[in-house]
Amino acid sequence: MNSQSATVDHRICNTTGLTVFFRSEFFIKINAVMGVVFLLVGAIAAILLALTRWSAVMFLDEVWFYRILTLHGVNMLVFWIIFIEMAILYFASSTLLNTRIFSKTLAHISFVMMVVGALITNYIILDGRADVLLTSYVPLQAHPLFYVGILLFAVGALLVCFNYFATLYIAKKNKTYTGSVPLVTFAATTAAIIAVIAILHGAMALVPSFLWSVGLMAEPDAGVYRLLWWGLGHQTQQVNVAAMVGVWYFMATMTTGAKPLNETVCRGAFVLYILFINIASAHHLLVDPGVSTEWKIWNTSYAMYLAVLASMIHGYTVPASMEVAQRRKGFTKGLFGWFAKLPWKDPGFSSVALSAIIFGFIGGITGVTLGTEQINIMAHNTMRIPGHFHATVVGGTTLAFMGLCYYLVPLIFQRDFYLRSWARVQPYIFAIGITMMSLGMSLAGTYGVPRRTYDSDFTGAAIETGFDPVAHILLGVLGIGGVIAFLGMMLFIGLVVAAAFFGPPIKDRKMPTWQDEKSQKMTDDLINRGYEEEGKHYEHVKTPGTIALVLIFLLSFVIYYFANWASLADLWFLN
Amino acid sequence: MEEEKKHPVQKLMDNIWLLLILGILVPLISYSGWGLLELLRLPEAILP
């Protein structure tokens, strides 16, 4: 069964049995490659920034700090992640639905637009004509090419979304699948829907800024710009969340043989994302004077919590499905016997597991707390904010995408990794580094250290603003964590590039397992056997270990949340 | 016949076009529309 079955326009994957169309495989590859290229740019910028915010080092001068901060934000939050998401869209539509992509020409055009847009943006930033940070808040004005680059990239991404929806339409029309689309495709659809609304907001914010930069329009209103820009800025991060959760489900199946406990509930959670996660953008405007308290409270609490509920559903169903799979393999000892026997040496699994832990325990808890209007007043524009989103976007999304790459390269590029033992430790190095960095930022932020600021102490300012020495120690933790994360990132890029371009070909055989033969056989058996024998009982299976983990999570949440209210009471004394 | 047996929620989840429309409408009304309305109705600030 190991022989490669290939016809003119597709092949059958020897590992998954999925039909891989060469046309979509090509676009998965080139988007993934471009993602890693811009990851490298963003990572070099990241280490320069970490060594500058480390107050004992202050590596860059003030001009280059803001320039590199702009470069870092654009490459990491936009280019790297969205290129990988485009690869995911091609995979989730074509490969998982067993159909050709709608338009090869459109895929080429969109890819070229995205690459050219990214190159223009990076050029103009490095040339020193767009020191406006990712947000490019009015009245800061960048060179027109900055806006052109971002808009070109965004329209390219929008075209990929259109291609994706059209491919879904064709698949349904041609009946290439039965019933509902697979859960991973549903997750990708969620990401694509959120991307559409994000890009619409981006156009509403950046087109007027472009016209202003070329003198065809008066300066846009700063408040309106901020409202519209965050409709882009935060929603693109929700695209990441949806794609990341999709990767969690996919990798849980690939590495442990897990099957989602209840697909309807999982899909319902994605629908909650579609409907409510976008309005959470409002928490960026909690100290803006122009919008009312009613608008802030509605958009950041009542409705946003429905999206938080969705994340908590995924946060339960992903590990619970793994627990069920592990228990079915016979790992039934105690509460956490199944947990200890998870394939921790498989970098695909460990990346995703660490991603879920960092995303939930650090990113999720801090995010909901910071999104509370009263608490936000203490934290707004402090280092607590980057402390939060480095846990979600980097510790969460980037780490999950790294895990995906450990399977993407052998399955799609059909090449094996060199230095496999290094690959096994890479996710841990990166996770330790990013956790230290995130906690260093968050804790320094509790001392009031501002974000987006070259010199935390405002040296030479008329009013002394020095911070407690502990804050500087925490900035050192940030710096050391940044160095460790950078090493982990470089190791990842080196391993992936070496494998994708020069790795041993594995065209005519199954993907070499990251696990030992016995574990892989158990996982394969579980996938082949399926879950039908349990019937409806499968959905009512007990998962005591995951319940215990959920209770630990909720306890951590409660402690952190109320500690913040206690801090607020200390700061804002009411008699 | 199978379509008729589907639960309404399942029907919603299988209709990507409806999800797309709702996904655009909800934030457009709740976040951007309402927010823009408030910002555009603000009186001019009087500088000291």
How are the SSEs placed, and which strands pair?
The complex is a heterodimer of chains A (575) and B (48).
Chain A: E1 10-12, E2 19-21, H1 22-53, H2 62-97, H3 104-126, H4 144-173, H5 183-213, H6 222-256, H7 263-277, H8 293-302, H9 304-328, H10 337-340, H11 347-370, H12 373-379, H13 384-413, H14 420-446, H15 469-502, H16 517-529, H17 544-571
Antiparallel strand pairs in A: 1-2
Helix pairs in contact in A: 1-2, 1-3, 1-15, 2-3, 2-4, 2-5, 2-6, 3-4, 4-5, 5-6, 5-7, 6-9, 6-11, 6-13, 7-9, 9-11, 9-17, 11-13, 11-14, 11-17, 13-14, 13-15, 14-15
Chain B: H1 2-5, H2 8-14, H3 16-40
Describe this structure in words.
The complex is a heterodimer of chains A (575) and B (48). Chain A is mainly α. Chain A has three domains: 22-256, Up-down Bundle (Cytochrome C Oxidase, Chain A), CATH 1.20.210.10; 257-341; 343-456 and 465-508. Chain A is built from 17 helices and two strands. Chain A has helices at residues 22-53, 62-97, 104-126, 144-173, 183-213, 222-256, 263-277, 293-302, 304-328, 337-340, 347-370, 373-379, 384-413, 420-446, 469-502, 517-529, 544-571; strands spanning 10-12, 19-21. In chain A, a hairpin with a 6-residue loop joins strand 1 and strand 2. With 48 residues, chain B is mostly helical. Chain B has three helices and no strands. The mean pLDDT of chain B is 88.
